[in-house]
User: Fold this.
Amino acid sequence: MAQNYDPAPEAKSNMGQPIPRYEAVQKVTGAKIYADDLPVPGRAAYGWMVTSAIAKGRITSIDYTAAKSVPGVQLILTHENRPSLADIKTFAGGGLGITDVQPLSGPEVHHDGQPVALIVADTFEAAREASFKLAISYAESSPTATFGDEGTVEKNLSEVNPRYEPIRFNDADAAITNSAHSIDVEYYTPTQHHNAIELFSTTAYWDGPRLVLHEPSQYVWGLRNASASMMEVDAENVRVKSPFVGGAFGSKAALTHRTALAAMAAKQLGRPVKLVAMRDQGFTHSGHRQETRQRVRLGCDANGKLTGYDHRQWEFTARTTPYSNGGLEKTVAMYDFKAARTDNYVVQGDRNVPTFMRSPAEVPTVYALEAAMNELAAKAGIDPVEFRKMNDTRVNPVNGVPYTSRSLNECLDAAAERFGWTGRNPEARSMRDGDWLIGWGCSIAMYPTQMMPSTARLTVRRNGTAFIEVAAHDVGTGCYTIAAQAAGERLGIDPRRIDVRMGDSRLPPGPISGGSISTASVTSAIAKACDLVDERLGVAKDASAEERSAALSGMAMPELEVVGSWVPAGMDESAIESLYKGGVRISGGAGEERTMFAFGAEMVEVRVNERTREVRVPRIVGAFAAGRIMNPRTAHSQYLGGLIWGIGSALHEATEIDHKRARYVNDNIAEYLIPVNADIEQVDIIMVPEVDEEVNILGVKGIGELANVGTPAAITDAIWHATGIRIRDLPVRIEKLL
Amino acid sequence: MRPFRYERPATAARAVAAAGGEAHFLAGGTTMVDLMKLDVMRPERLLDITQLEDGRYDFIDWDGKSLRIGALTAMATLADDDEVRRRVPMLSDALWLAASPQIRKAARIGGNVLQRTRCAYFRDTSYAQCNKREPGSGCAALDGGVTRGHAVLGTSSACIATYPGDFAQSLIALDAVVEILGKDGPRAVRFAELHRQPHSRPDIETTLEEGDLIVAFSIPDADFPRSRYLKVRDRESYAYALASTAGALRMDGDVVADIRIALGGVATVPWRAREAEEMLKGSSISEDGLERAAEAAFAGASTTEDNAYKVDLGKRTMVRTFLELARMEG
Assistant:
């Protein structure tokens, strides 16, 4: 069998060293590094969250008798006895809340799995047993589950988000109508859940007026401030600890109900309370990738030059909170369109609120655009790789704003060469191996380069070591490692001699770990801190490593501490103030002054059994260009995980919903399918060197959400190429190919 | 989970004497403990049978062409047995393609055949309707539920929950016999009589009586080197069958001398397609003939909108199994 994974990818130009992860040994030896592992003072009590068994209606009565009689039960909180809490605002309202529904705020049930009670006991087992005995009666109404069901409400996104503007760029309708070739197709993408291996845990305890939260978080400063305002205490009195996160993908960015439940119970009982939303509860606790419908009209002239692009998206969302991820302002910047029109709608039903999930806007919208590009290329008789290259653009066609860098064509060439794309027979059903039909497909991947303000405290020591402190987060991406590398490269110190501390709201604030912004933002703040060290030591900016090293070892004091702070271009210093308040200000992507994106090209081979229609993916090639690569080893892991995620998104992942009851039925990881090892064969990653001096200080583009974008379009095209069948709703399951 | 008592009887006889009512046997626990955590099963006492009489029920014995397997044999042990793999690959295949390495190591084959359905409405007690869990409460799956994984054969208006296992299909195809130790002593029943279709009482899944302990499976004629278990599913490993076929073939020249067909993933119980077997016996293997036999195997199917594809997929799976077996060296 071929070796699929290079142990340490080489550093090409504009790449850092592929050093091993900062926490590699801790991770493989099972060290206690996650929030739920942290010790607490005194004997903890254990919570069990009781969630609603209906999606719509109200609680008519609760009989506590049997539950309270379970030995060890200390507290049962419901809407009937909940202490006062301030209302939590959602992201749309400038807060961090996942939903506008407040914790245990009343008898109304707005969605399946809404927390309706918290049981706290001396042991987990007692709390669990009591949960079986808490008798809750409901008056149930008929809920609306999804698209096409009775009771949905459709709104133009501008009705719920005043800042949203549909795009009208020249006359797309006329451009498409007058095209030599055009298509008008609809696509569907399913609800998906993050399902990180680490569950949603919160441990809360009070030390006098001070609240300590151990909670895996993508934004400890945000969680600190949002929790403080919810609990009506000073933000300085709340501390959030989350040293490492065991997978998040967007699901650990928001403030969910469990934080309030644990904090209230801990206060009432005067002891630490540990609370975990179980796997099935996780499906309704912290959001999901919204289900979407997409309609794409696309045209090109006889030579294959794109003309008009019309893309409309419908996102299924919650009746209580019309959350939207949008995204069409980005797809419209991808190619040299002569005219474009976009519209985004939200469709509301009785569901919990969606949230961001790895490339939240990009996964559904880029899938639709790229699938449409493949369909139009086939219709026009043009090779799909060639088709993309001939429609490349250097500017966002809508506003003419130039890309800071764009290496899509280089990625397409690199992937095509590695894959052996040249000479692909354009005919469907043209390749087979015995009973297996073979097909090839391609897509582009893209992700906006985004940034947030950040600070970083840097301590350099005379003995040649250093220490970085920033409340950024390592969600499995290698953030500690990269922070050490950013400082090490600048100061001429081996990064393995630099300690890093993250994931604690007592540290200087860093960005939310979302939107693939951490590396760009944190390394920029570290670079600023390094500049301050230079200044204090009187070292010239262009000094050699030896000169710097000499200056450090010659310091009068044993150590020097500085705090660097950085704001992205286009933001003023008030952005730092907002950061200290736990705010979320993000810039980048399709901006007014710069168009900033990372790109990739993906090529895939599928095999489909002619009779029983199983789809297998024997090989996939991805080539990516994303500015400076800080560490080719951790970058390789991000790309690898992204491509595998993309395969899952195309073939496996979907949360199934009961239309009658508006409840998720496959709420476990035996039946919510993601690829297993046996599904993944050969995965080739190519890192295409790219230099971008405009995006930020180090020229870094975020990569965590790049590789999984577009993969489903490559796979559906390969399936078409193998079978002649166009599947336009994901995931592609056997029954769709019979 | 709820509190329970844990006991470890020393002998099978004592285990059987102690069992019944709310006292259940515990072997690998891969179904029992799972369903206890979900509050679907609420035993008050668990009788751990894994240590009975020094492994007396953990064996794989060939005697000529007959095979006898102890009920406490781990799935992994039987799957890995060289002689089984060579002489009757369908038994090994069915185990290899089931579950995960960890589960195969823990689970024993006696409990394996009693694995309970994955129907979401059965496994989640917050659904009020489930005739299997609460007799007479209705069927959420049939009342507008998600039924993509549900059965199309052997269903009733009370229940369409799929029998989830793989290994049982191979046993039923091989005319296995179940050796039971009951309160009245040992007895044997045909494997085909072990499981009950749901009819009006889907909560009664087997013909076992209170206290009955499966101690072994015996297969009087197990020599089927030309046999296999084909499992079609949504991913390559660790997934339940959408459709599967346990198939075995004996040829006399170009003529089918003996053929065994059992279907998984599509029925409420391990399902033997005897009518299809009869149609194919005595003729040569052809795609047309197989398609006609598959048609007959699914003639009695009853479907929902979600699972209608299983009829087509089940037929294709059966046909593919025998086309591939026909290509094998006899």
About this structure: The domain at 1-31+390-449+589-738 of chain A is CATH 3.30.365.10 (Aldehyde Oxidoreductase; domain 4).
